[in-house]
């Protein structure tokens, strides 16, 4: 009776070998097709090799704790004649033309067929260096181009192709499904923000937070009839802190930290469909009272989406007052060209232990959050910067 | 009623001789003997004086054909085996193929080449030379795969005012049968979808169409639907049909019995990659005979050329990419 | 002959002045033989000249403009710039343009004669010129054999000018005389003195008429010496001076002039006038042709087939737009 080899299958993209962990059956056992018979470990996971067909285990050639490459013969299974026929081990080669038996018919019959073994994990081998799941064929790229989509848009699609990649059919199915949903157009601003955030996110972003007492700042505000926004205080504090040491706002380009040339701080302003970031140039050089007017004007221009180009861009850090939305805490993402975004949360009246009075007293407190590119700045540096900003906010006369 | 590929060729020759007094047949053993493969059997009786035996002089045979064409006749030349046409290569590519372009006088000759391997035919009775002839400007190269095409395309070839290399596959001569032939077929220059599919396009011609169909049937049981494009002519190539097919399937395999270097498959792939790059889901592949002279022993011969089995294997590579 | 010689000389001087593209091949020394062919053929006959048949072509009726136009690259020439120098012809007037491969044209002439036979046309003859070197080719052998088997009215005229490029007869063939090859084909062979115009005229007349009436091939071999290089680029320094000094080394035109004078058939004055007229004619034609346009690549359809719709569309290059300004090709 014919014997069928048990072959180490392709267990995943770029897997070249696996170690035998244990044999789940022993020689002499009868197994059914697809029954797990050997447990193996790859550098990614423990997996099971299944029987290629039903039959009796003749022997295992492999040993436990040894590594075998994909395609290695691990053992053999004895199959019955009918199973062998089912597997096509004794089928004659199909006649391509004419009628068999005619004199001069092509004698493929006379060539011995080697038994064909089906891999028990099908649908792969994808060349490892093409990284299976994320491979995009020219056809896929052309279609995405046509549709104005990018690879990131495929992230939500379940792929059925080799290595789990998204095929054209998967994409078209997905798009057909999307058609059934209500859709609203995304404005150019929305798309611009989406693109900026996607690009920013390619860096490792971390965040630290520190509570800051706002009472002194709120008191200081009353000095001005126009009541400067809390964000402006934060801008000034950050500007002064960075003027003292601009390293936290530096950018890592290759193996250099590129320092900012001037302390230009942007402020996030919410508009109808996104965020605009007008810039206060040289925010370290002008005292707070001189910035009140320009700040107001910038914000109003931004809200009206009338910001001229020279008033955006080129900033080295951004301040965002998400507290106005009632948010006490947030993890904003810095702009792709910046290392820092400093956030101010909503102010809350909280009890604070006053050691000198020996009791809890009410204070107004908000969280300052610093999201940063962790390649440039670590927790310590971030903490020190926040500490300085908090100090300056508690001494508003310095701003 | 059933008609073989060879009988269809004979019918076409008879019809051409009957309908156009300018047609005559010239070649070795074509007269009373009826040709080495009996393609011209009995034609000399039906058309005395117009089916003429030539000496073994392929150069002079083709040269004579060119002269006769200049004089207004329409010679149909039978070269006994395609392999021997190389002895007349100069007259084909430098005389016949350049005559019209150089002089303005057309050269309406048809050169029939029994081509392709059969068991035991060996290195010099098996060659497939379509790529060589297609390379030279001024020739039309036809490679019919079916009985119907063998009939209509030969009639077309004789009517065309340019030199036509008509490549007949010897394996198909007696083995390929059809129930009828038809008066008209697809126009010359158009490829035929021999099998509709969805997952992969096989572009092929001549006997390999049938091997590809067998491969497609094997793959159908695995859930793959293979589309097969029968080129019918390799010069000109119906590139539009090929590209439209690849647009549907995203994958391409070119199969040919000829050798790989600079073959028809290479030409098709070059065109698809340049004109249809954005259609491809996988790199295109070609499958050809091995790059050695054609072996004599059937064991060696059957591995030398593509078979349904190797076509299916190659297809799987492309399908699984 | 004179016209042929004068034309050839003019072409040579144009070649040396750099006005000719490609090679320049003259028939200096072969005029007697060549002209004998042209004069004995009739309208309706077919002539496949080779590279040294200027005189024969003129005698057969090729307009002098054809040679000048083809050499000078005028688009009005018979080949329209697609082929050049000696590869020219007028198929419908019976002059078959050669291809470079020696021996190949003979089978084509066979084909024309064969077709006429099938059509029931009799009484025409085909002549193919070839040199001693060309007789070594397989194509020569196949075609002569074929003409003989098919009984065609073919006359092959071999100008044995002693050298094929630089290769002397001793390295070209080993039989006693090229005319002996006729035996192998079952046809008659004739050997003549190629410098003697009278012999050439007589034998060509005889063989052409015999071929015409008996429809059997003839092989005529004429011995002469090539009085120029293989082409004008070649100085022929390899030619054996002994042959130059022998009788076949003499200029056939000089010999003919001597005879004319000897027999009183022409005066020196008349002979001189023939040369002058020839020079005037040639100069006039050259002047005319030099102002004719060259082929325009932008006007070409770049299609080698007559059946345009079967041209392989991806092989046809897009004809670029003509650039602004005067077309100035090197």
Distinctive features:
heterotrimer, A: 399 residues, alpha+beta, Dihydrolipoamide Transferase, Chloramphenicol Acetyltransferase, seven-stranded mixed beta sheet, 19 strands, B: 321 residues, alpha/beta, Rossmann fold, five-stranded mixed beta sheet, 12 helices, 14 strands
Description:
The complex is a heterotrimer of chains A (399), B (321) and C (330). By secondary structure, chain A is of the alpha+beta class. Chain A has three domains: 3-94, RNA polymerase II/Efflux pump adaptor protein, barrel-sandwich hybrid domain (OB fold (Dihydrolipoamide Acetyltransferase, E2P)); 131-180, Irregular (Dihydrolipoamide Transferase); 203-398, Chloramphenicol acetyltransferase-like domain (Chloramphenicol Acetyltransferase), CATH 3.30.559. Chain A is 24% helix and 24% strand. Chain A has eight helices and 19 strands. In chain A, strand 13 and strand 14 form a beta hairpin. The radius of gyration of chain A is 34 Å and the shape is elongated. Chain B is α/β, with parallel strands linked by helices and 321 residues long. Chain B has two domains: 3-178, Rossmann fold (3-Layer(aba) Sandwich); 192-319, Rossmann fold (3-Layer(aba) Sandwich), CATH 3.40.50.920. Helix content of chain B is 40%, strand content 17%. Chain B is built from twelve helices and 14 strands. Chain B has helices at 5-19, 43-46, 58-70, 89-103, 130-135, 147-159, 170-175, 207-220, 239-249, 264-275, 298-304, 308-319; strands at 3-4, 23-27, 51-53, 74-78, 110-115, 140-142, 164-169, 177-178, 192-195, 200-204, 226-230, 233-235, 252-255, 285-287. A seven-stranded mixed sheet of chain B has the order 3-2-4-5-7-6-12, sandwiched between helices. A five-stranded mixed sheet of chain B has the order 9-11-10-13-14, sandwiched between helices. The longest helix of chain B has 15 residues, at 5-19. The N and C termini of chain B lie far apart (45 Å). With 330 residues, chain C is an alpha/beta fold. Chain C has a single domain (2-315), classed as Thiamin diphosphate (ThDP)-binding fold, Pyr/PP domains (Rossmann fold). Helices cover 40% and strands 10% of the residues of chain C. Chain C is built from eleven helices and seven strands. Chain C has helices at residues 2-16, 31-40, 54-60, 64-72, 104-119, 138-150, 181-185, 197-214, 241-245, 252-262, 268-290; strands at 46-48, 126-131, 154-160, 163-164, 167-168, 188-193, 218-223. In chain C, the strands form two sheets. Chain C has a five-stranded parallel sheet with strand order 1-2-3-7-6, sandwiched between helices. In chain C, strands 4-5 form a two-stranded antiparallel sheet. In chain C, helix 1 (2-16) crosses helix 3 (54-60) and helix 5 runs parallel beside helix 6. The two termini of chain C are 35 Å apart. The mean pLDDT of chain C is 92. The chains are: A alpha+beta (399), B alpha/beta (321), C alpha/beta (330). The interface between B and C is large, with 49 and 47 residues.
């Amino acid at each position: 009776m014919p014997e069928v080899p048990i072959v180490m299958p392709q267990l995943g993209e770029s897997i070249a070998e696996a170690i035998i962990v244990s044999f789940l059956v022993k020689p002499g056992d009868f197994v059914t097709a697809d029954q797990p018979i050997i447990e193996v470990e790859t550098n990614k996971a423990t997996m099971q090799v299944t029987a290629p067909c039903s039959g009796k285990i003749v022997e295992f050639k492999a040993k436990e704790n040894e590594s075998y490459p994909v395609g290695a013969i691990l053992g053999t299974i004895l199959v019955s004649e009918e199973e062998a026929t089912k597997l096509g081990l004794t089928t004659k080669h199909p006649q391509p033309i004419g009628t068999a038996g005619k004199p001069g018919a092509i004698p493929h019959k006379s060539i011995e067929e080697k038994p064909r073994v089906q891999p028990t994990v099908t649908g792969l081998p994808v060349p490892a260096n093409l990284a299976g799941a994320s491979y995009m064929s020219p056809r896929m790229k052309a279609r995405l181009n046509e549709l104005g989509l990018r690879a990131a848009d495929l992230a939500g699609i379940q792929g059925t192709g080799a290595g789990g990649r998204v095929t054209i059919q998967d994409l078209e199915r997905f798009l057909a499904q999307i058609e059934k949903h209500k859709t609203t157009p995304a404005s150019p601003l929305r798309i611009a923000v989406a693109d900026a955030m996607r690009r920013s996110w390619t860096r490792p972003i971390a965040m630290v937070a520190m509570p800051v007492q706002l009472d002194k700042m709120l008191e200081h505000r009353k000095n001005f009839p126009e009541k400067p926004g809390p964000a402006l205080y934060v801008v000034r504090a950050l500007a002064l802190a960075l003027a003292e040491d601009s390293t936290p706002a530096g950018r890592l380009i290759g193996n250099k930290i590129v320092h900012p040339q001037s302390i230009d701080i942007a402020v996030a302003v919410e508009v109808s469909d996104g965020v605009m970031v007008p810039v206060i140039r040289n925010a370290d050089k002008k005292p707070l009272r001189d910035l009140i007017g320009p700040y107001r004007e910038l914000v109003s221009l931004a809200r009206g989406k009338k910001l001229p180009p020279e008033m955006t861009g080129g900033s080295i850090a951004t301040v965002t007052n998400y507290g106005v939305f009632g948010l006490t805490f947030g993890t904003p993402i810095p702009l792709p060209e910046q290392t820092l975004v400093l956030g101010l949360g909503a102010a809350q009246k909280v009890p604070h232990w006053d050691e000198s009075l020996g009791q809890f007293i009410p204070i107004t407190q908000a969280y300052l959050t610093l999201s940063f590119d962790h390649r440039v700045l670590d927790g310590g540096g971030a903490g020190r910067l926040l500490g300085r900003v908090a100090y300056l906010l508690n001494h508003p006369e310095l701003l | 009623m059933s008609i073989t590929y060879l009988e269809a060729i004979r019918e076409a020759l008879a019809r051409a001789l009957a309908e156009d007094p300018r047609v005559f047949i010239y070649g070795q053993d074509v007269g009373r003997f009826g040709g080495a493969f009996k393609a011209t059997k009995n034609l000399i009786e039906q058309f005395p004086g117009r089916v003429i035996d030539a000496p073994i002089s392929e150069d002079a045979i083709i040269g004579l054909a060119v002269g006769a064409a200049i004089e207004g006749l329409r010679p149909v030349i039978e070269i006994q085996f395609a392999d021997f046409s190389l002895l007349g290569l100069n007259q084909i590519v430098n005389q016949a193929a350049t005559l019209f372009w150089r002089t303005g006088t057309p050269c309406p000759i048809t050169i029939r080449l029994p081509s392709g391997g059969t068991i035991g035919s060996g290195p010099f009775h098996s060659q497939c030379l379509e790529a060589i002839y297609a390379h030279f400007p001024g020739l039309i190269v036809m490679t019919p795969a079916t009985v119907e095409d063998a009939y209509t395309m030969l009639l077309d070839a004789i009517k065309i005012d340019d030199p036509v290399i008509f490549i007949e596959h010897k394996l198909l001569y007696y083995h390929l049968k059809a129930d009828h032939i038809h008066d008209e077929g697809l126009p010359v220059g158009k490829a035929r979808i021999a099998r509709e599919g969805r997952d992969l396009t096989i572009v092929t011609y001549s006997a390999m169409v049938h091997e590809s169909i067998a491969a497609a049937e094997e793959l159908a049981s695995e859930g793959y639907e293979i589309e097969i494009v029968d080129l019918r002519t390799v010069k000109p190539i119906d590139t539009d049909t090929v590209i439209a097919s690849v647009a549907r399937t995203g994958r391409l395999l070119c199969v040919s019995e000829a050798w790989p270097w600079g073959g028809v498959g290479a030409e098709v792939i070059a065109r698809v990659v340049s004109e249809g790059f954005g259609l491809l889901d996988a790199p295109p592949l070609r499958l050809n005979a091995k790059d050695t002279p054609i072996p004599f022993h059937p064991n060696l011969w059957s591995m030398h050329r593509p078979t349904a089995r190797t076509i299916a294997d190659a297809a799987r590579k492309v399908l699984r990419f | 002959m004179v016209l042929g010689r004068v034309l050839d000389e003019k072409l040579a001087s144009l070649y040396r002045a750099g006005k000719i593209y490609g090679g320049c091949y003259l028939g200096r020394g072969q005029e007697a033989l060549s002209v004998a062919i042209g004069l004995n053929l009739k309208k309706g006959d077919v002539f496949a000249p080779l590279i040294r048949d200027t005189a024969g072509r003129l005698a057969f009726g090729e307009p002098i403009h054809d040679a000048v136009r083809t050499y000078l690259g005028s688009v009005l020439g018979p080949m329209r710039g697609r082929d050049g120098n000696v590869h020219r012809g007028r198929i419908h007037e019976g002059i078959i343009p050669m291809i470079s491969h020696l021996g190949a044209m003979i089978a084509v002439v066979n084909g024309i004669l064969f077709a006429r036979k099938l059509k029931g046309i009799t009484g025409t003859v085909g002549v193919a010129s070839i040199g001693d070197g060309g007789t070594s080719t397989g194509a020569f052998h196949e075609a002569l054999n074929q003409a003989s088997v098919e009984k065609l009215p073919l006359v092959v005229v071999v100008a044995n000018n002693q050298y094929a490029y630089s290769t002397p007869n001793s390295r070209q063939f080993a039989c006693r005389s090229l005319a002996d090859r006729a035996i192998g084909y079952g046809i008659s062979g004739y050997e003549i003195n190629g410098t003697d115009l009278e012999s050439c005229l007589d034998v060509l007349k005889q063989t052409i008429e015999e071929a015409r009436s008996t429809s059997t091939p003839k092989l005529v071999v004429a011995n002469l010496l090539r009085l120029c290089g293989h082409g004008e680029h070649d100085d022929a320094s390899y030619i054996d001076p002994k042959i130059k000094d022998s009788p076949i080394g003499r200029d056939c035109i000089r010999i003919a002039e001597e005879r004319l004078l000897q027999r009183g058939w022409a005066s020196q004055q008349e002979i001189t006038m023939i040369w002058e007229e020839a020079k005037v004619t040639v100069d006039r034609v050259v002047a005319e042709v030099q102002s004719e346009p060259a082929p325009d690549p932008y006007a070409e359809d770049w299609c080698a087939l007559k059946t345009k719709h079967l041209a392989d569309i991806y092989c046809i290059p897009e004809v670029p737009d003509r650039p602004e300004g005067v077309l100035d090709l090197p």
